[in-house]
Every structure is written in C-alpha cells, then in structure tokens.
Amino acid sequence: MSPATLRDAAAIATSSETVARVFDPRRNSLNAQRLVLATLVIVSHSWPISRGLGDPVVLGVSLGGWAVTGFFAISGFLIYGSAQKSRLGPYIVARVRRIYPGFLVSLVVVGFVFAPLSTLVAGGTYSPASGLAFVIRNSALYLHSTSVGDTLGGVPLPRDWNGSLWTLWYEFACYLGAAALVRVGAAGTAVRRGVVLASWAAAAAILTVCDLTGTALQPRQLQTILTLGVFFLGGAVLRAFAAKVPMSGLGAGVCAIVVVLPAFVPGAGQLRSLAVPYLCIWLATVIREPAWFTRNDYSYGMYIFAFPVQQMLATAGFKAGAPWMFAVVSVVGTVPLAALSWHLVESRFLRRESARGRRTSAGGLSTTSPSPLRGLISKRAPGRAMRQAL
Prior knowledge:
This protein has 390 residues and is mainly alpha-helical. It is 67% helix and 1% strand. The protein has one domain. Helix 3 (30-51) packs parallel to helix 13 (299-315), helix 5 runs parallel beside helix 13 and helix 7 packs across helix 9 (220-240).
C-alpha cells in the first residue's frame, strides 16, 4: 500500500464527510470484503462438515451467520443504488445474469461430477437420473433437495451436497424487493427515503417482538426473509440517505459498539442491521483493494462451490488435526473452482450485459438514469463522488 493510499485512508477514517462524498464505487474494497466473507462461511462450515459439530459462535451468532449478514448488508447498499437508476427490465436481467449462471453450473457440477465421484471413494448409489433430478428440483433458486441419490451417507453431515445455496433464493427475493421499493417511492427522493426507512423499521419491529417473546413467524420462510432482509434493508437505508449520513471513524466506532450490544441487551439485535452496513462501507473506503480484486470477483464462486468441495474432502476421509486445518485445505481446494466459475461463466455473462447496455445506450435508449447522488456532490470532493452503482 503506497504512502498516498495510507494518507487517503487516514483522512477518510478521521473525516466527517457523508457516505456519498466518501464512497467511490470504483475504488473500494468490497470485492475483497466479499471474498473474506465467503472464506468465513467455509471456516464456519468446517466444524459440522469435518466433525459433525455446531458452527463456531461469536456474540450469539454463528460465524457463517455473520458472513451472510455481511453479504446481505453489502448487497442492500449496492443493489438499491442499482434499482434507483435502472429501468425494471434491464435491472432484473442484470440481477439474473449475476446470480443464476454460476448457480446453475454449481448444480450441474454437483449432480454430474462430485456425486458420482463420491461413490468411487466411499460407496453409495448414483444414477444420472438422480443427478438430473437434483438439478431440476433446485433450478428455480429455491433449494428443495440437497441430496443426490444415495450418496454422502457416511460423512459427519450426511446427504447434504450444498447447504450454502439456500440463501440465494432469499437474496434474489431482496433484489425484487429493492425494485418494488424504488417504484413505490417514485414520487421523489424524500418519498423514496421514507419508504425504505419505513420498510426497515417494520421488519426490525416485527423481529424485535419475536426476539423478546421467543416466538417465530410461520411459515419459516417468512422468518428467514425478514431475518436476512432486514440487513439488506439496512444497506438500502444507508444508500438512500448516503448524502446525509456522515461517515467517519467515530461513526464506525459507535457501530462496532452497537454490533456488540445485543449480546448483553435483550431486544437490541435488530440495531445490528444498521450498524453492519455502515461498518462494511466504512471499511470499503478506508481499505482500498489492489486493482486485481476490482477486476476479478471470486467471492461468489467460493460461496457456491466450497460446500461440495468440503463434502468431497470429508468423503475422502480427510481429517487434519483440527477444523481450522480442514478450513485451510477447503479454501485451497475451492479457489480453482471459483476462478473457473468467474473467468468461464460469471464474467462472460456480465460482459455481455455490459455490452448490451452500451449498445442500448448508443441507440438512444439508455437503460439507466443518472445516479440520484450526482449533482449533490462536488467533482472536487475528497474520496471521489459516488459515480455509478453496480
């Protein structure tokens, strides 16, 4: 990290500029953050997959749970910005292109590569029909089945080929929710801010009542979408009020206290859904990632392929001394698949979408409107203007 970069980071850490003035979508560490979060999921899953134990818990939440909330908080910030400046059709297409091709490839790899290979190592029964059924049953993003034939019968976490994929359906539901919130608040910036803030407050209030009374919403999918969605909405609130919310080291310190507080104060858990997005974006402005991370995002590939890689290691009987060592080997084993997923699948679909957007714009039918943050920010503002969301 160069001295100039260190000076910029120090200036941001001690400044009181707003989020809009400080956050630069082209110079931040969000890709690196997401890669770290995906790695934390691998670490968390190493306990149940290698030993049949529960995930490690920090401040009352599993390590993997913290990682998933971070994913949703970052998505809320970025995706709400995208929904604000995009027409509905191109927005939906862009979201499908980002999430679905890699997801479908991961299903195919499990159903037709990992599952039959596992029977060669540890026995069990497999047929191409069972692999095809696995792909078809789960192809709509909702995870209906995690087993393929009679495989993975002798591992600590049996018959579960990719337990990580369950979050993707809820992620996409949040994408649709962001589009709906923007359309409901189309009357103006103030109305839009009010709508997203009210949505967060309603979700947080419902979950707080559940926490204090020890009850759970039914069906369980409703509880889950609110539990994850409140962090997505927290990120969206931060984006909606980006021109007003100050971003500083002091604010990050307060948010760090808020993250710890619910471990000691009953009913305060939902405040984390505002604190976590703030911390993620603050870190993204203070820590600048190398250019390589800006061009390459392996985090999604790490997330969707790590679980089956870990199950293959368990099937092969790999049990290094501790789950931590299992996690290290799992990360090393997943990186090549994540790289292939990015370079051969994900980035190709994203490039096609970018080319499509340029062609449409050149034809006079722009697919985006100017960012609502443009014009509120001086071109000379330190830390760059918030130019364009993903």
